[in-house]
Inverse folding.
């Protein structure tokens, strides 16, 4: 059951799934244009061994999208860190998919003691801030309308075809699940502010200072964040290793939940 809690001026939507007897919590952060829905196949494979906390980070999913919130990586990372610290006292494994992986890295930078492990699933990296003209356009009165038009060019099904390797797995449940958060105008207003506030991804120099043990899991055929990015991140992160899943694209929690869960559990136990 989803719950809400207000922190740092924003109402976060989350799901807390405690595992009796477990001494570790896995925190799951979804990717860009997604929500905690993307972990629905992975969660049942983890919660018998660990407690699981999923969070819809702003401006996505069912989390509030206030106009006064600063949608920067730094502010969002600090918001999530404060929330996690309030919720959990046991050891934490931060796990992020795609842009959620970049948020994990931001949390490790700003709150290094929060987690003793991190898992990056096809994490985004080395993406610069939006160009000045796009940031300026985000201030236009109808910026949200243009964001909506841009997303509608390919549609939810078209975007899903880009992120999965096996096109046959796309069904009505997936399309509806990924479409639902985009049924209100508020998401497009939030995306315009996110475009305005988002900073550069962490640099190589910043990544090299992160000491938290990290497991990187990548899809062999990822077209959104290519494997070359994963190898570069693995080279920059001083205490990391990378595992590659064959016949998989970008959406690992959907495409290969069993293999992803196996690698996660193996890393956690060995660390």
């Amino acid at each position: 059951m989803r719950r809400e809690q207000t922190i740092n001026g924003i109402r976060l939507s989350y799901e807390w799934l405690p595992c009796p007897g477990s001494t570790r919590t896995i925190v799951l952060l979804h990717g860009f244009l997604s929500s905690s829905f993307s972990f629905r196949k992975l969660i049942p494979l983890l919660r018998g061994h660990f407690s699981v906390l999923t969070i819809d980070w702003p401006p996505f999913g069912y989390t509030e999208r206030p106009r006064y919130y600063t949608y920067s990586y730094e502010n969002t990372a600090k918001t999530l860190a404060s929330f996690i610290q309030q919720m959990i006292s046991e050891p934490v494994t931060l796990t992020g998919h795609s842009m959620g992986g970049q948020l994990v890295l931001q949390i490790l930078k700003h709150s290094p003691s929060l987690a003793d492990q991190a898992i990056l699933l096809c994490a985004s990296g080395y993406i610069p801030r939006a160009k000045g003209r796009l940031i300026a356009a985000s201030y236009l009165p109808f910026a949200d309308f243009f964001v909506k038009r841009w997303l509608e060019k390919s549609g939810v099904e078209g975007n899903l075809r880009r992120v999965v390797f096996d096109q046959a797995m796309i069904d009505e449940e997936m399309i509806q699940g990924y479409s639902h958060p985009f049924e209100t105008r508020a998401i497009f207003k939030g995306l315009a502010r996110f475009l305005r506030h988002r900073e550069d991804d962490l640099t190589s120099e910043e990544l090299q200072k992160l000491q938290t043990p990290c497991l990187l899991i990548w899809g062999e055929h990822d077209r959104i964040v290519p494997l070359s990015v994963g190898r570069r991140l693995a080279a920059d992160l001083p205490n990391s290793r990378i595992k590659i899943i064959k016949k998989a694209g970008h959406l690992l929690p959907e495409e290969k939940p069993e293999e992803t869960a196996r690698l996660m559990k193996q890393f956690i136990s060995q660390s």
Notes: The longest helix spans residues 73-87. The chain has twelve helices and eight strands. The chain has a mean pLDDT of 94. The two ends are 31 Å apart (CA to CA).
